[in-house]
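Input C-alpha cells:
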C-alpha cells in the first residue's frame, strides 16, 4: 500500500478488512504486545489506512523499542538523529538506539552507527569499529544504495583511518557495488576505473603464483595470491616498494606468507584462485 491516496482507491471490502486488522493491532498494542506496537507504528508513520501521525508512530516505536524490537529501535534512533516527531536532536541518544538495533543484526543501524564512529558525533571516533560495523552491514547487502560499500572499499584501498591497505577486500566490495546496479552511469564508470587501477597495480591478485625466495623453505612453493597491500608509510603515503602479496600456500595448513612483488610470478598454466 503506497499511502492514504492509494488506500482510498482500494475496494471497500478490503478497506473494511484492514480496518478490522488495525483495530485488533491497536488492542494488542495497548496490552503491550511488542510486535503489534512496532507494526502499528509503521502504519501510522506511513498513513496506511489511517491518518498519518508521526507523533503517534514515535510513541509506539518507543514502547516497542524499550521491549527490544530492532525495527523500532532503529526508527527511534532515526528520530533522535534527525530531531523529528518531537524528539530533541541528539547524536548520543541516536547512537544508543542504533547500537541496540545493530547488536541484533539490523543492517541499516550497523551502517548508521559506523558513520557515527567515523565522524565522532555521539561517540568517540573509532575507525576500527566503524570498519567492522560497515562490513557487517555490507555483508547483508545493505549500503543505502552503494555508499556503505564504497566507504569501506576506499578504506581498504587507501589504508585510511588506521587501517592497512587490503586490496582484495576493496576489490570485492567494489565489484559488489557495481553488481548492485545502483551507481548510475557516472558512478559505475568511476568505480570501474578504480577496479582497473587495482588490477593493473596488482596483476597477480587472485592468481595462482610461484614464490621465489632465498629461503629454501619457500622457494618454488605455489599458492594463491589472496591479497595485496603495503607494509610501510611515510608522510601519510604508503611506500610503493613496500607492496606485498599475501600468498596462501598449497597444503592442508594453508600457510600465509608475505611476498615482494618481484618475488612472485604467475604459475604456468595456473587458473585464477578463490
Amino acid at each position: 500500500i503506497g499511502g492514504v491516496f492509494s488506500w482510498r482507491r482500494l475496494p471497500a471490502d478490503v478497506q473494511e478488512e484492514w480496518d478490522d486488522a488495525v483495530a485488533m493491532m491497536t488492542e494488542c498494542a495497548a496490552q503491550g504486545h511488542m510486535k503489534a506496537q512496532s507494526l502499528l507504528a509503521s502504519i501510522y508513520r506511513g498513513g496506511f489506512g489511517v491518518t498519518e501521525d508521526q507523533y503517534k508512530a514515535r510513541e509506539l516505536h518507543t514502547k516497542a523499542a524499550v521491549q527490544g524490537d530492532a525495527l523500532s529501535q532503529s526508527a527511534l534512533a532515526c528520530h533522535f538523529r534527525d530531531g523529528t516527531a518531537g524528539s530533541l536532536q541528539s547524536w548520543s541518544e541516536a547512537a544508543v538506539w542504533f547500537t541496540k538495533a545493530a547488536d541484533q543484526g539490523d543492517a541499516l543501524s550497523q551502517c548508521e552507527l559506523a558513520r557515527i564512529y567515523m565522524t565522532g558525533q555521539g561517540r568517540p571516533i573509532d575507525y576500527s569499529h566503524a570498519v567492522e560495523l560497515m562490513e557487517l552491514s555490507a555483508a547483508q547487502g545493505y549500503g543505502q544504495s552503494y555508499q556503505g560499500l564504497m566507504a569501506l572499499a576506499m578504506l581498504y584501498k587507501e589504508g585510511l583511518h588506521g587501517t592497512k591497505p587490503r586490496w582484495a577486500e576493496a576489490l570485492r566490495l567494489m565489484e559488489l557495488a557495481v553488481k548492485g546496479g545502483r551507481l548510475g552511469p557516472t558512478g559505475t564508470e568511476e568505480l570501474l576505473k578504480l577496479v582497473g587501477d587495482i588490477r593493473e597495480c596488482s596483476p597477480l591478485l587472485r592468481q595462482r603464483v610461484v614464490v621465489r625466495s632465498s629461503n629454501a623453505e619457500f622457494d618454488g612453493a605455489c599458492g594463491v595470491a589472496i591479497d595485496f597491500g603495503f607494509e610501510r608509510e611515510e608522510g601519510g603515503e604508503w611506500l610503493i616498494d613496500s607492496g606485498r602479496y599475501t600468498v596462501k600456500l598449497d597444503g592442508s595448513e594453508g600457510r600465509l606468507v608475505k611476498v615482494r612483488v618481484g618475488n612472485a610470478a604467475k604459475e604456468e598454466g595456473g587458473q585464477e584462485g578463490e
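Residues 75 and 170 are 31 Å apart (CA to CA). Residues 12-30 form the longest helix (19 residues).
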